[in-house]
Amino acid sequence: MKLKGNHCRNKMERWLMSAFFLSLFLLKVSISECAAPYTFTSEPVSGLSTAVRDQLHQEGWCSMYDLCGARKDGKPLNCPKVVEAVTPTETFSHKIQSLCPTITGNVCCSEDQFDLLRQSVQQAVPFLVGCPACLRNFLDLYCELSCSPDQSLFVDVISTSREHGRELVDGIDFYITEEYGTQLFDSCKDVKFAAMNTRAMDFIGAGAKNYTDWLSFMGHRAGSYEAGSPYQINYKTNAVGDIRPLNTSVTPCWDSSLSCSCGDCPSATSCAEPLPPSDNKDEGCHVTLGSLQIGCLNLGMGILYVVILLGIVAWWIQSRKEHSNTTGQSDINEPLLVSTNVSPPVPGQGPEIEEAGKPEKIQDPTFIESSLSRWFRAQGTWTARHPGIVLFIAIVFMILLCIGLLQLQVETRPEKLWVSPGSEAAEEKAYFDSHLAPFYRIEQLILATIPSANESAPYIVTNQNLLLLFEIQAKVDALRVNVSNSSVSLQDICTKPTGSACATQSVLQYFKMDSSKFYDYQGSAHAEFCFEHASSAAQCLSAFEGPVEPGTVLGGFSGTNYTEATAFVITYPVENFVGESGDENEKAVAWEEAFIRLAKEELTAMVEGEGLTLAYSSENSIKAELERESTADVGTIAVSYLVMFVYISFILGDWVSPWYVTSKTMLGLAGVGIVALCVLGSIGLFSYFHVKSTLIIVEVIPFLVLAVGVDNMCILVHAVKRQANKDESVETRVGRALAEVGPSITLASLSEVLAFTVGIFTPMPACRVFSMFAAVAVLLDYLLQVTAFVALLTYDLKRAESGRVDCFPCIAVTAESNDVQAHEPGVLVKYMKDVHAPVLNLPAVKALVVALFTGLFLASIVLVPNLVPGLDQRVALPRDSYLQGYFGNITEHLRVGPPVYFVVRDYNYSTESNQTNLLCSISQCEPNSLLNEVSRAALVPDTSFIARPAASWLDDFLVWMSPDAFGCCRTFPDASYCPPDDQPPCCPEGDDYCSEGDTCKDCTTCFLRADLLEGRPTTEQFREKLPWFLEALPSADCAKGGHGAYSTSLDLNGYEDGVIKASEFRSYHTPLNKQTDYVDALRAAKDFTNRMSKSLGIEIFPYSVFYMFFEQYLDIWKTTGISLLLALAAVFFVNVFITTSVWTSCIVILTIAMIVIDLMGVMALWNIQLNAVSVVNLVMSIGIAVEFCVHITHSFAVSSGTRSERASKSLSTMGASVFSGITLTKFAGVLVLYFAKSEIFEVYYFRMYLALVILGALHGLIFLPVLLSLCGPNTMREAPPNRHAKQYLEVSRGAEEVTEPVT
């Protein structure tokens, strides 16, 4: 009779219960833990029989023989007969030899005993057949115990019982040597059980660590109607009297005759030793100086800085000598042109200007420079004469662009934002989803205890906490949502691998998710029992008929000390569907939203009332919270822009009496409106072409365009103010002002536009889309600045000069009130001219500036490699998000990593191919096969990030087909599939026990050994039996059935041709707690599969759910470098094209590069990670850095005098505009971002923008003028208008300086 029960008809229980039937007659292990040999504790009979008391211990004698009866639960028991070994018939002898080749001659077992032995061991064969040596040794152990002719030498009957008047064996001592026990255990300890990604020893030995634990576990006497040995077997090594312990030869797992695979026998000589654990990070180049170890980069930058310092000191000493030599002399070397009000000389006829005795030539202006100046003079004059037409055209044009906003679409899907269309990980995910199955959705709860002061957190596994968990589960089960007029519960959407029960991962599964069983199972004591026997005890199997590993449902423990856990981890896997519409998971998303509300409104209060904490998350949580974040700081951003607007309005005005006339609030408001229109117009234009916008565009581009626009507004307004001759018309002054600053505005704007345009070629979608929108927005801003804003400026000038009130132009003040004071240079202009520029011209200051900024630059180069790739999810979420606590709990409590799949494309299983042996990990597989290498990598998880061997459908399929696994692949006489004896129709459904019937008595194994080709199936055999395997239910008689465990592991479409398009082998990563862990795990998996693909000649790739989002960090440095270099190259070529001066362009690029590198150094110091957001900001920083540099450089190039004087003039002319237009404006706006609710704004916008503004101002207003004064380009003067030609000619011929009123 065979135990069946309702459990055994279901998949996973039958699969795992096979581990229990491994003792002498019904070899099923017990449900109890055995850490040491058991002693007989049941009530003995009145005494042992004379035969038992007087049993002999000598060769050729038996201690027990034949079957004399059975226990009350039907388990057969031996007769305690001390008899001489019997001679078997020839047929019986051959039968014995087929299973026990070491037993020859006489035997101590009857045919009934042997049939029961064979029937029982067949349940252990599927676990061990992949390692022939282990299986052989395991069978030999029970063959010797059951049938050895010298049984009495090592078996002693110590207890008997009586049933129906017959004496039956109830307990024995089985003597073995320590050497034999150790060798037996060593041959089997590493054998894998692929379906569960674990070792077979976890099933047949309850995770035993040595032979005593293993044998004690198998020898424990099972209770009534429980799986296990029918009587107690005590394994002993301390022999007494005539006892001679069993010490037969044991075949090592590496023996060539019965060799096991490297995965099952890592000690085999053919198996390479795993690499020792080492730090996964590349330490890079180092130089050892005594006891000090210095990085090569650090040392190189240090040496370079010392050399530069020496050069600076040498220059300073030389400059002092030259200065002392010229002391007391008249200023005969002063250039003739000292006033910024004098127009440029005629091209090609400029004088040589001496500086410290060194002549400097005046370059002819370039054709483009001259053309731009003439164009802007004409265009500015025309615009000032027709402002209404210009504004009308501009407004109509922008309205047409903004109409595209009606088709606006915002992309919020992370995979579309951060994963490039050609991403390898994205393609692999699509391949996995289409050929195998999408990874399920995850809903999760984490209950944790709270540590008290100076004490660790208390353990969570208590009766009270388990009952609380049942209450929570009841509320989750009762949760219903209405979707399309249908009620949806967890039961409707959850993953169900074996039937009707959800595969919920919870400690409650040890109670079958049934609260009524809590007290029946002894509460928390049963849970603690299941922590040690999760894979080997029937009572611990889940409601979905499978085992639940304690490491997945508990948290906060160390090693395998599960009872010390401080957290419950409850995971609800939900079916996932992949499609383009995004509505495929409508029901799941609706239920997830209700689940989060339930956790917030009810579950949290329940848990906190019991002194615990609750963290929770759903698959949709991150997306929902990111969308909430996008609106969480609308107020903060609005305040930031309001502050900048107020400042702009203030800085544009003169604020002299009467201030209500000279202020320019309306002009500032109009300027901000232009910026807004540029952003909206850019978005509208791309919306016409169905290019989706992103939240980062709304967050970053207004800041960028405002920085560029405000700077241009300040430059234009200040240029007009410098044209203070009221004898000229407004139109003439506006035209001259635009001619003065138009070329530099054009140079800066085109540099920015091209810098962003080249960003379109970066692979990251978020960066690419940002670059597209930014380029168009800056271009629109430039066009509107030189047209619409000039028109508005003209209106404002006429308003002020006519005495009309700002903001209320219809109100005109009286003549007395309109007595506007003459334009005086502002405070900033005076500061730049009288303080800032003179100080920077001091030689000592120049030396100090170059030394400090060079040191900062070199230090930043040293810091840049310390930037950490990644984006902490907690930073990306609002500070008040419930996910903040969830991610903290994940890091603190989880002890298992995400699953990783090794996917094989186009596996050729045909006979002609050797790919089967290149993939598998059982006997006869190649030592360097894929699965052997995975097992080897799992031995060094610190570097491989692989936690355990892979679950292998291929290994289990080969074992399932093996004739040695005689309970698995079987056929009826008509060649149809015959299931194991404990499954229908062999065992009738509804019976608790399977009686020996006639239905399957004629079933035979699918193949004989002779039918296989070198132990492997032929192409036809493989093709025919694979569907059988995938439909076969696991059971006690055959644990290798593939249904459920491997149902989605293969793509059988077209497999009849001998090629399986896709198949996967599942393992797990180690716990990944930091962003760098995820990146390193992905890199290690990629490196591993690349190496295996190259070694085996088979296409293999790794897949895990997070790979697609972290792949960008594998190449983030490359992406960053390409983006920045392309942007810098664009700026360089625009400067060369317009100025035709390579040297000028080099100075601009050097300064911009220093700003960007210094910004990256600040990022390293301020813990700002390198990711898509920071890369976008870095690209944007080049655009803003252009504003800090180009205007001053251009002003320097067209100024006259010595280099120092030209640097001073450029600061006087443009310094105030740059400082007020960019620095103070951005500084005021950035400070507000510090108060943002979302940490991502505080980290990636406040910190980076603040650093950018400060670094840009320091470099643009301090370092760049000093650099220009030392090695700036020659002056480049523009051709004058005809009416001033004579004046310039005279100047160029060395005449006395001719001046005219300031214009």
UniProtKB/TrEMBL annotation:
Gene Ontology cellular-component annotations: endomembrane system; membrane
PANTHER family: NPC INTRACELLULAR CHOLESTEROL TRANSPORTER 1 (PTHR45727:SF2)
Source lineage: Eukaryota, Viridiplantae, Streptophyta, Embryophyta, Marchantiophyta
GO MF annotation list: lipid transporter activity; sterol binding
Residue span, SSD domain: 633-795
Homology family: Belongs to the patched family.
Compartments, as annotated in UniProt: Endomembrane system
Residue ranges the record marks as coiled coil: none
GO terms under biological process: cholesterol metabolic process; sterol transport
Keyword Disulfide bond attributed: yes
UniProt keyword annotations, A-Z: Cholesterol metabolism, Disulfide bond, Glycoprotein, Lipid metabolism, Lipid transport, Membrane, Signal, Steroid metabolism, Sterol metabolism, Transmembrane, Transmembrane helix, Transport
Transmembrane intervals: 297-317, 389-408, 634-655, 667-689, 695-717, 769-795, 847-868, 1116-1138, 1145-1166, 1172-1193, 1214-1236, 1248-1268
InterPro entries in UniProt: HMGCR/SNAP/NPC1-like_SSD (IPR053958), NPC1-like (IPR004765), NPC1_MLD (IPR053956), NPC1_N (IPR032190), SSD (IPR000731)
Pfam families: NPC1_MLD (PF22314), NPC1_N (PF16414), Sterol-sensing (PF12349)
SUPFAM superfamilies recorded: Multidrug efflux transporter AcrB transmembrane domain
Residues in the signal sequence: 1-34
Membrane topology, as annotated: Multi-pass membrane protein
Organism superkingdom: Eukaryota
Protein name as catalogued: SSD domain-containing protein
Keyword Heme: no
